[in-house]
C-alpha cells in the first residue's frame, strides 16, 4: 500500500492512477500522519508536487530512525541540486521529476524494494536476523586517527579470532584501510554496484578480503570515481547484510558528512567520535554533536575518544570536556610507534598488544563496546596465524 500526500485532489487522482494498486490519499500533513499511525507497516509515502518541501524533509527526518523501513519519495517540478541535497540528507529516499512517469514508477519500486529488504520480506526468513553490532568511527576533521582506530579496533573486537568482524572502508574516494593493513584491493565495495538490490551472503563473502583470523575487510574502490555509483541505499543494504553475518561491523569514514556517512550512522549502534587536542578539531566536534542532536542520534550511544592525547600540548582533558560538553570515554596516547606500525603495515594491537596505544584501543573494545577483552597472547597468535596463511 502507498500513501500519497497531495493537496490538489485532481493532481492526487492523476498520480494515484499512475502508481496503481492500493493508494490512500491525504490532503494535508496531519492526514498523512493519521494514515501512518493507522498502519505501522506502511512502507511508502509519496509527496506530491504541490506539497511544501520542508514537510517532506521534516517527515523523512522524523521517521528515518523510528521507522527505517518507511520510504519517502518526493515529486518535484524542478530538480535543483540544493533541493536534492537537502531532501536526501534528511532521509528522503528519492526525488523524481513530476513529468517523468517512468522515473516516478522506478523510484517507488526501488523504495519499496529497499523497505522489503529492511524488513527481511524478500528473504522469506532465509537468513538469521541481523544482530551484529555496528560501530561507526567518525570525525568531521581529517587526519585525526579514524583509520588507525578503526583498523586496530576491528582486530581488538575479534578477540583472538573468536568473534567475526567486518571492517568496512567507507572512505570511498581516498580509503586507507587497504594501505594500513597492506591488503591488495582485488575485491572491493565497487563489486557491489552491478549486483545492487540483490546482494546475498555469498556475494558479500566474495567482496571482502580476509585480513587475519576473525577479521575481514570490505575495501574502498581502487578507482575513486566509482564512489559516485555507490548510493546510500547500497550502503544500507551492505550494512544490513554484514550485520547478519558478523558479530561486529566497524566502519571507517571520510572526514565529510556525506550520504554514505549518514547511511552508516543511521545503521549504527554506536558512534565512535574521534577528537584530538586541537582547537579546530574540538570546534568541529562540538558542531557535529549539535548535528547529532538534530538527527536524533542518541547521546548514550556516542563515544568520544581523544586520540593523540599528550599532556605536553597544554590542553587538558578537562578543557576538552568543557568545550565538548560530553565526557571523554577513552584516551589514546600520542606515540611515534603508531606511525612506525602504519609504515610496516602491521596494526599496533597485533604487533605490540601491551603498548599503551593498544591497551587503550582494547579497552574501548571491551569496556565501551562490550567485547571480550582481547588477550595479548590471543593477539600475538592472530599475528602468527596470519603470517602462516
Ligand atoms: N595516537 C597516535 N599517535 C601518533 N600518531 C598518530 C596517532 N594516531 C594517528 N596518528 C598519525 O596520524 C596520521 C593520520 O591517521 P589516520 O590516517 O588514522 O587519520 P584519519 O582520521 O583516518 O585521516 P583521514 O581523515 O585522512 O582519513 C597517521 O599517519 C598516523 O601516523
Ligand atoms: Mg582515514
TrEMBL record:
UniProt-recorded Gene Ontology molecular function terms: ATP binding; ATP hydrolysis activity
InterPro entries with a match to the protein in the record: AAA_dom (IPR025669), P-loop_NTPase (IPR027417), ParA/MinD_ATPase (IPR050625)
Organism domain of life: Bacteria
A cellular component term, taken from the record's GO annotations: cytosol
Example GO BP: negative regulation of cell division
Residues of the AAA domain: 133-303
Protein name: AAA domain-containing protein
Organism lineage: Bacteria, Bacillati, Actinomycetota, Actinomycetes, Micromonosporales
Amino acid at each position: 500500500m502507498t500513501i500519497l500526500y497531495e493537496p490538489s485532489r485532481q493532481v492526487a487522482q492523476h498520480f494515484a492512477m499512475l502508481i496503481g494498486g492500493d493508494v490512500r490519499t491525504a490532503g494535508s500533513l496531519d492526514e498523512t500522519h493519521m494514515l501512518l499511525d493507522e498502519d505501522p507497516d506502511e512502507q511508502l509515502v509519496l509527496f506530491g508536487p504541490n506539497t511544501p518541501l520542508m514537510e517532506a524533509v521534516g517527515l523523512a527526518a522524523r521517521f528515518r530512525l523510528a521507522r527505517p523501513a518507511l520510504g519517502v519519495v518526493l515529486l518535484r517540478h524542478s530538480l535543483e541540486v540544493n533541493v536534492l541535497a537537502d531532501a536526501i540528507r534528511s532521509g528522503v529516499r528519492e526525488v523524481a521529476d513530476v513529468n517523468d512517469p517512468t522515473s516516478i514508477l522506478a523510484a517507488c519500486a526501488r523504495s519499496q524494494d529497499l523497505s522489503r529488504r529492511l524488513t527481511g520480506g524478500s528473504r522469506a526468513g532465509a537468513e538469521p536476523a541481523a544482530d551484529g553490532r555496528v560501530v561507526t568511527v567518525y570525525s568531521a576533521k581529517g587526519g585525526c586517527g579514524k583509520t588507525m582506530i578503526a583498523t586496530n579496533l576491528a582486530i581488538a573486537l575479534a578477540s583472538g579470532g573468536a568473534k567475526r568482524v567486518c571492517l568496512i572502508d567507507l572512505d570511498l574516494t581516498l580509503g586507507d584501510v587497504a594501505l594500513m593493513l597492506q591488503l591488495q584491493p582485488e575485491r572491493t565495495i565497487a563489486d557491489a554496484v552491478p549486483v545492487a538490490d540483490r546482494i546475498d551472503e555469498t556475494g558479500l563473502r566474495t567482496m571482502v578480503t580476509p585480513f587475519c583470523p576473525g577479521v575481514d575487510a570490505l575495501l574502498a574502490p581502487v578507482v575513486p570515481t566509482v564512489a559516485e555509483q555507490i548510493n546510500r541505499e547500497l550502503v544500507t543494504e551492505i550494512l544490513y547484510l554484514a550485520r547478519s553475518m558478523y558479530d561486529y561491523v566497524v566502519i571507517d569514514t571520510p572526514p565529510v558528512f556525506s550520504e554514505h556517512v549518514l547511511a552508516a550512522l543511521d545503521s549504527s549502534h554506536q558512534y565512535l567520535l574521534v577528537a584530538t587536542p586541537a582547537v579546530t578539531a574540538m570546534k568541529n566536534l562540538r558542531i557535529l554533536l549539535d548535528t547529532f542532536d538534530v538527527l536524533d542520534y542518541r547521546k548514550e550511544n556516542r563515544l568520544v575518544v581523544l586520540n593523540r592525547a599528550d599532556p605536553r600540548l597544554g590542553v587538558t582533558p578537562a578543557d576538552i570536556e568543557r568545550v565538548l560538553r560530553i565526557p571523554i570515554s577513552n584516551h589514546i596516547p600520542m606515540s611515534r610507534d603508531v606511525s612506525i606500525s602504519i609504515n610496516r603495515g602491521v596494526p599496533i594491537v597485533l604487533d605490540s598488544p601491551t603498548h599503551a596505544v593498544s591497551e587503550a584501543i582494547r579497552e574501548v573494545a571491551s569496556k565501551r563496546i562490550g567485547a571480550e577483552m582481547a588477550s595479548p597472547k590471543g593477539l600475538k597468535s592472530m599475528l602468527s596465524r596470519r603470517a602462516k596463511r
